[in-house]
Amino acid sequence: MAYASQEAYFETLPGDVKVRLQQIQASVLSLIPGATKCISYSMPAFRDGRVFLYFAAFKKHIGIYPPVARDAALIQELAQFRGPKGNLAFPLGQPLPMALIERVVTALHKEYAIR
Q1: pTM for this one?
Q2: How many Å apart are CA 3 and CA 8, to the nearest integer?
Q3: Under a CB-based contact definition with an 8 Å cutoff, are residues 35 and 26 in contact?
Q4: What is the pLDDT of residues 46-79, one digit of tens each?
Q5: Confidence of residue 114 (pLDDT cuts 50, 70, 90)
Q6: Which of 5, 27, 65, 92 has minimal Cβ neighbours within 10 Å of its Cβ?
Q7: Domain ranges for the chain
Q8: Long-range contacts formed by 52-57: CB under 8 A, 24+ apart
Q9: Which CATH class is domain 6-112?
């Protein structure tokens, strides 16, 4: 399904999941002042020159893409959340580790954004 905005995407979700995605959205906007909200591949995303972060809700988790590739220490800390391709899955039944997610946002921005 195509969404006109991140907010339109959020409106399709249950309240508790919507709040989690709004937390991620607010963190990105706070951490990366030049980031612009967009929809890419039918998921909420952020760009700064180019897309550097995708995040989406699924049946049992919140996913964050693409995988962090250049910060070995952070990759190791993310091990429990990493899937086979390195994408992150944060279970809905657990609190979001926002401090860790904020480090992911910063790392992905550094890796992918064009300044």
Answers
A1: 0.94
A2: 6
A3: no
A4: 999 999 999 999 999 999 999 999 999 999 999 9
A5: low
A6: 5
A7: 6-112
A8: 52/108, 52/109, 52/111, 52/112, 52/113, 53/28, 53/105, 53/108, 53/109, 53/112, 55/21, 55/24, 55/25, 56/9, 57/13, 57/17, 57/20, 57/21
A9: alpha beta
Mean pLDDT of 43-48: 97
Confidence of residue 113 (pLDDT cuts 50, 70, 90): confident
Residue 56 has what DSSP assignment? E
Instruction: Quickly list DSSP for 71-111.
Output: -HHHHHHTGGGB-TTS-EEEETTS---HHHHHHHHHHHHHH
Distances from the Cα of 114 to the Cαs of 47, 59, 92, in angstroms? Answer: 9, 33, 32
